[in-house]
Amino acid sequence: MRALDYALREGWASLWRSRGSGAFAILAITLAMIALGILLLVTWNVERLLAEWSSAAEFSVFLRDDASSEQRGEIEATIDRSGVMEQRQYVSKGEALARFRREFTELASLAEGFEDNPFPASLEVRVRPEAEADGRAIALVQRVAALPGVADVRYDREWLARLSSGLAAVRGAGLALSLVLALAAAVTVASVVRLGLNARRDELEIMQLVGSPIAFIRGPFVAEGVLQGGCGALMALGALWLGFAAVNLWWGAGLAMMLEDRSLQFLPVQLSTALVAGGMVVGGAGGFAASRHAV
Amino acid sequence: MIETHHLSKLYSRGLHALRDLTITVAKGEFVFLTGPSGAGKSTFLRLLLLQERPSEGDIVVNGHDLSKLSRREIQEYRRGIGFVFQDFKLIPNRTVLQNISFVPEVLGVPVAQQRRKAFQVLKWVGLQHRMSAYPHDLSGGEQQRVAIARAVASEPVLLLADEPTGNLDPDLSLEIMNLLREINSGGTTVLVATHDRELIRLVGRRTITLDQGRVVEVA
Ligand SMILES: Nc1ncnc2c1ncn2[C@@H]1O[C@H](COP(=O)(O)OP(=O)(O)O)[C@@H](O)[C@H]1O
Ligand SMILES: [Mg+2]
Fold first, then answer.
1. What are the pLDDT digits (tens) for B199-209?
2. What residues are in contact with ligand 1 under a 6 Å CB criterion?
3. What CATH number does domain B1-80+159-219 carry, 3.40.50.2300, 3.40.50.300, 3.10.620.30, 3.30.1480.10?
4. Do B11 and B182 touch, CB atoms closer than 8 A?
5. In ligand 1, which atom is closest to the CA atom of B213?
6. pTM of the predicted model over 0.80
7. Chain A interface test: which of B88, B106, B111, B159 (most A C-beta within 10 Å)
8. CA dist A6 to A217, B102, B110, Å?
9. pLDDT in tens, B28-53
């Protein structure tokens, strides 16, 4: 406890003494933590949206124009019995055409020229989130597709799967980049701390000769690294917040439309705290490496 | 207090700074270590403070075999040993008081007790009025007295001095020697390395003479 208090006081004093080169180390940490922060922001938001979209899963069963009402009844019964369904709605051919005219007004003239109504009737089924997750939804879709009177089933999960695997790739690449930057930052911290350490060789020799415990000799250098890391991570957090606000300001409206009215969110408290803690760990590792040269 | 057996220190260029040294210093003794420049006096003291390791042989100080101490134990061992060097070895950015109280401070000795001790030893060397001065504000003689005060504050069993008067004029040198004698009369074993034969003659104690790393005379 006394060693910690002493190390923090001395580490802070040392950081202040060498604030020129210290700023350099802090900047390195800031850059690494910005990279990590962007990665966290992107993956966290995409994961959150993915979860929401997955829970809002729907599939459409398109009926043949010649499907009988018994066949339609059998299809509906199969869906109802499966326990996968949350809600279902029948969309007749007429309604499908009307919907097309409403949603694609600029193509309305095209629809004028139709002799027959080309849109099939369909059943739109909203899936329970747990059925989506455990694969029962897929099983149902395959069963329904084989029933008489069904022209096609559209269960468009492929883009979600692609988004997930894309996210995994982004996460892998981002993590690798962040690790490299964190390593570079730790090395920078270590060299900066070591610079100050070398300037105090005489003092360190005296501390050793009078029998100062090792923790009191090395501790301040570790603390200096931790403080540099903490400052750098806090600055990164500030920069991320400003960047996030700017993105929302300029592209917020467009994003909201693209995301179907779901908004992007900044890192929650736990992740922000973890980011700062990560910066402190990286800085502390650099300080620790440098402190080995103190004794 | 100090026993060495066939102690040798070989530096990289094949140079023997110390060669087959077997020396005994009894508890409570005051001993001079002398010899020409380059004889190996400083090397011997550095080995005793574990600033360096012997190439051969071993050293036992106050019952501790120095080669067997862990890093933590080395620091503990050093706390029991006072040292006074030619270049004073005071921490420049700490006041006289902070220099003296550094170890008690990190060891968690209560502040009042630290101050009482510091005041007591500073008064003894006649510098109680310079408590909050920084080393560079003091003369050489004053800095050396602060170094002595620091060494005594830890109540060491052994005090090592390497050319403690090397930077001082003769009057001040004698004054420093008197302080060391006083410490010795309190029961602390004192080993002083100096090439100043005149000073040794004035003080008159057992003297071990080295030359080229060997003991050439004990008187
Ligand atoms: N770090 C070192 N590296 C190489 N040689 C050294 C080193 N320290 C001392 N020496 C050599 O060891 C010998 C003894 O030196 P030293 O112990 O300083 O003598 P003294 O203190 O008696 O003048 C000298 O020849 C010196 O050059
Ligand atoms: Mg010498």
1. 888 888 899 99
2. B 11, 15, 17, 35, 37-43
3. 3.40.50.300
4. no
5. 14
6. no
7. B106
8. 10, 12, 15
9. 999 999 999 989 999 999 999 999 99
